[in-house]
Design goal:
The protein is α/β, with parallel strands linked by helices. It is built from 8 helices and 7 strands. It has a 7-stranded mixed beta sheet, sandwiched between helices. Helix 3 links the parallel strand 3 and strand 4. Helix 3 packs across helix 6 and helix 7 packs across helix 8. The two termini are 32 Å apart.
Length: 271
């Protein structure tokens, strides 16, 4: 994945893109995450015990900055400050249902994040457009313009894409997610989880953390424990939009203690 900061009159856009993923034929019937062998095997092998240092390292590497910049580095926390409502633009009821399960799962596992689907586009601050692979480039062009679309295609050749608009306080005001529907269930779920989660704020990818889905070399297909730590830290009320690294470090010890208790509870962890 790559992240972009784009200047505009009032805002900067942070665009996020996956590197190309293998496009597999549709599977029928559509499966949910727990029914897919590729996901079940990953869950069985998943590392669930982490030191404070491992969690903090991943949080700082994903919540701050971005890999690729057109308008300079932005080392500030970016997040929604209020309810998040997700609207799916698609004629594929099966993929919409899968997306709804993804959103519900995120809402269940991030304690202080109010996120849910909506059927009213005007009520949404996250728009998910589901398109066929052949229409992806045209859709990216309609969102970001021809010049930026060419740059994204040349540099990344993405299969999924997300981006957000933030205000001067670094609060995310609106996010757009583009997902392709004509892929395997695993690929769709992998894209949906990562893009929706990154549209909430942790935009920086890192190759140095092997447990996060925010790593080009890692495919999950579900909301893993390590990334639950990252999102729960980000959406704790004591971590505010616009905070610097030093400001976050000052409150992080007590926040991490509470996040550990929550993640342990919601995942029925023993340690």
């Amino acid at each position: 994945m790559r992240a972009f900061n784009l200047p505009s009159a009032a805002f900067r856009f942070a665009l996020l893109a996956f590197a190309a993923l293998t496009c597999l034929p549709d599977a029928a019937p559509r499966a949910i995450a727990g029914e897919l062998p590729a996901i079940a095997s990953r869950q069985r092998a998943e590392k669930k015990s982490f030191t404070d240092a491992e969690i903090v390292d991943g949080f700082f590497k994903t919540a701050f900055g971005a890999e690729y910049h057109l308008a300079g580095r932005v080392d500030r926390i970016r997040k929604f400050d209020g309810p998040v409502r997700v609207f799916a633009e698609t004629d594929r009821a099966d993929r919409k249902a899968q997306l709804a399960k993804v959103v519900a799962d995120i809402g269940k596992r991030v304690q202080h994040l109010d996120i849910a689907m909506t059927d009213v586009s005007e009520a949404a601050n996250v728009r998910v457009k589901l398109v066929r692979d052949r229409d992806l480039y045209r859709t990216i062009t309609s969102f970001y313009g021809a010049e930026k679309a060419r740059e994204i295609r040349t540099s990344l050749d993405p299969q999924c894409l997300s981006g957000f608009r933030k205000n001067e306080q670094y609060e995310i005001e609106h996010s757009d997610v583009i997902l392709t529907v004509d892929s395997s269930d695993f690929t769709f779920l992998d894209c949906a989880y990562e893009e929706v989660l990154q549209s909430l704020g942790p935009i920086n990818d890192t190759a140095s953390v092997p447990w996060t889905m925010f790593n080009d070399n890692v495919s999950m297909g579900y909301f893993d424990v390590y990334d639950q730590y990252i999102l729960n830290l980000l959406y704790d009320p004591r971590i505010k939009a616009g905070m610097t690294v030093l400001e976050v470090r000052a409150v992080l010890p007590e926040v991490l203690a509470d996040v550990r208790a929550w993640v342990k509870q919601v995942n029925n962890l023993k340690e």
